[in-house]
Predict the 3D structure of the following.
Amino acid sequence: MKKLLQKTTAVLVSAALAVTCALPAFAEQPTEGVTKDENVFLILNPDGSVSEQIVSDWLHSDTGFDAAADRSTLSGITNLKSDVLPAQDGENLTWTTEDNDIYYQGTTTQTPPVTVDITYTLDGRSITADALAGKSGHLVMRLALTNNEGQEMEIAGSRRKVYTPFFTVAAATLPTGSYTNIAAQHGTVQTDAKTQLVCFLAMPGMAETFGGLLPEALSGLEDYMLDELVIEADVKDCTPPAFMLAAATSMDQLTSELDIPDLSGQMSQLEDATAQLQSGAATLHEATGTLQSKMDEFAASYATFDTGLDNALSGAQQVQSGAQNLLDGAKSLDNGTQQLADGTQQLNSGAQQLAGRLNGTLVPALEGAAAQQAALQQQMDALADQLGHVQLPDVDALKKQLGAGVGQVFDGAAQGAAKAAAQSVGDAVKSGALLAADAAVAQAAPAAAQGVASKAAQDVSSALAAALQPYVDSGKMTSDEMNAVIAEAAGAAQGAAAKVDAAGMVQGAVDKAVTGNVTVDADAAAGQIVAAMAPEKEAAVNQVTAALNGLDTAALKAMLLQFQQLSGDAQTMMGSVKSLTDALYNADAPSDQNTVVGAAGALAAGAQSAQDGASSLRDGAAQLTAGAAQLSNGASSLSAGLTQLSGASKTVRDAIGQFRTGAGSLNDGAAQLQDGLDTYASQAIGKLTELAGSADTSALQDVLKALETRAQSYTSYTGSADGVRANVKFVMKTAGLPEEETTSSSDTEDSEAAPQDKTPDASFWDRVKNLFS
């Protein structure tokens, strides 16, 4: 029983230490699909209360995540390794990514399954951790663990509170210079040059769960079913301690070691099994003898295999060399096809530009030239026809006709200009006379308005005489015209005196007098001007007719003859131009390849086909190069693998020799096993039968089953989707724990990528393990 207790203790320690592993063997769960590994990091205040909870989740799927369901109550979810974020509907998350692993983190404020209350007493008085700094005396530290995952259940006919099993490792680091005489009941103390480590293994809530059920043979387990951990020490210039706790559920190993069957009902089965073991040991002894004899044959066969493996390695090396040559050739072909593709691209570009320019510039020009050529031909034909009917005139008769025409034109122009000038002068005189009359009326207006007729008539007469006299002096108006205006104006002023609108009546009479008496005969004035210009007319006629004195009609006849000859040459030239146009472009069949334009279009189409073909060839060469590269890499991997296999084969060959030697030792051990089983059958069975008769283990079996069920069901702290293999671990530390002894929450981002590196400093955990070795 002592060995059973020791073995059970080792199992519990291993289970508790497993919280730092990336994929611990927790509860039995589905083996396919998505796995979820959850790590909960709790930063504690010195009194054990939770300051911060940071949760890191690792989702893994061999096939990636296509709208994969997840569940989490975390706040502030961030992806630690990529920009992918889930679609979120409350606590339900949906992940979509081609990655096989998703690492995300968040925070929570929910109550952890295991909590701790840390109190300090210095010399019998309570004290806080902050107040401990620098103090001296006898210090007692108590860690009260609480399992928050308990439930009332029916166990063997009575109610019992069963807690989810959390295996908890608690450790305190105490500086050597400050702490002496350390005592830790149920714990172990280990010291190095700088730090003393106090470590406990506890199962909070299990004392209540198993209360009164453990048989005396297993009562030693109660030393590990702790709910309170106590550390005592003498301190000098105290440095407050730092604590770290790790907790996780695991029932696989516990139930296998603490399986308490109904011994009284199964002893006969045990006796039968013992007999079968004895028979099996005899068979094993015989089989090991046969194994020893067959090892020589196996060693010889394996030597043949090893030689064949060396031959395969040689062949793989040749394949690797050939694959490299193929890759070099494929690269050369790839480069050549690239140059060909570039050349065809340039050819295609040039051909397209040529065809574009011909169709965009030459063809419209040729079409326009054809139209102009036809129009020119018609014009030349019409002009030739007209020139054929031309008769050169008589120069003397032409002079007379021209002189008469020039005279008529001169008389008409002079007559019109003179008349216009006379009319303009007359209009100006009338305008000036009217302005002068307006001023005179304004001067006489006061007298007319006062009814002084003689005064009004006198004022109008004197004002008009003064205003119109300059026109008389310049010849623009006659004295008779001026006197007639003055007489009518004076009479109007005298008759309008004392009337309401005297000024207006005088004004109207004056304007009418000016308009009616001041007249201009434009035709008479124009006749006088034209008669005065007779010398200029004669000079103009002589000047125009003098230009005909040197006219030689013979030269014109010669010019007509030359034009007829030129017309014939133009007909020949236009025929040649048409031939050239037909060679350049066929308007009825633009794609005619016998023309320059049609040939250029065919060249452009061919160049495009050549470029397409070169591109296809380039793609094929690139695929060949990629395939050759893969073949070369595969051949290299094959060669490297066979090299490793060949070396390993030599190791196996040597191991076979050692195994041949071991087979003999195995045969001897089988004989000893057979003897031992005979002794066990004769001595141990009787003692077990005695124990079975006195033990009632039904309630203990029910509790163990309930614990197993609760451990298997507690797979996540913040949630997981149905069908996901999940597990959860908790790591707690008080603020201020030295960085070299643990992993802070800020390290989780990098550690998740390499789970095997997530354990704290190796020296720390090695010391924990050594405490229970």
Notes: Residues 395 and 548 are 7 Å apart (CA to CA). The first strand starts at residue 35 and ends at 44. The two ends are 18 Å apart (CA to CA).
